[in-house]
Design goal:
Rossmann fold; EC 2.4.2.10; pyrimidine biosynthesis; PRTase-like; 8 helices; two-stranded antiparallel ribbon
Length: 206
Amino acid sequence: MTYQAQTPIQSDIWAVSADLSTLRNKLLDLFCQLAYQEGDFVLSSGQPSSYYINGKQVTLHPQGALAIGRILLSLLPPDTEAVAGLTLGADPIVTAVSVVSALEKRPIPALIVRKEAKGHGTKAYIEGPNLSAGANVLVLEDVVTTGQSAMKAVEHLRAADYAVNQVISLVDRQQGGAEFYNSVGLNFQAVFTIENIQERYRELRN
């Protein structure tokens, strides 16, 4: 499905006021309609796959971003001092959460973690507000396969003296990522599993 900009009517602005249960269902439909594809693909991990999830089709969608911000904010522990993620996939996610947090009067800054340190200026890996040492930072991801991408963010954040104990992903492909995080002592949670998406995708096609 191709997204087309249009003037919304009140019933279309579901991400603004829907309850969290409805919000989750609507977001699941967006993933099925815009992000999920079946075919022959090679993932960033190098693994072949019979399907692909282009999360940015949803995270950069106006209602998708708002729904993601609201849902993820509801999942953050009370002591969360910032959200962070590895560029590029996590950039719109951490931004959405931070913006929604300000609207909800629970301001939480966003951090973007580079894959490589920039070659000029401060040569930093991490972009965003400077936090105090030991600040609790939660890592966000769009799609988790093996868990290695978000782990790069965890490592850079810990090297900057931040405390990172949890990863939340929008989608878990259930290909070892959860087990990997458990093995390194990280709590892991996903909004959707690939089973959720594939089941709903088939329902929508029937």
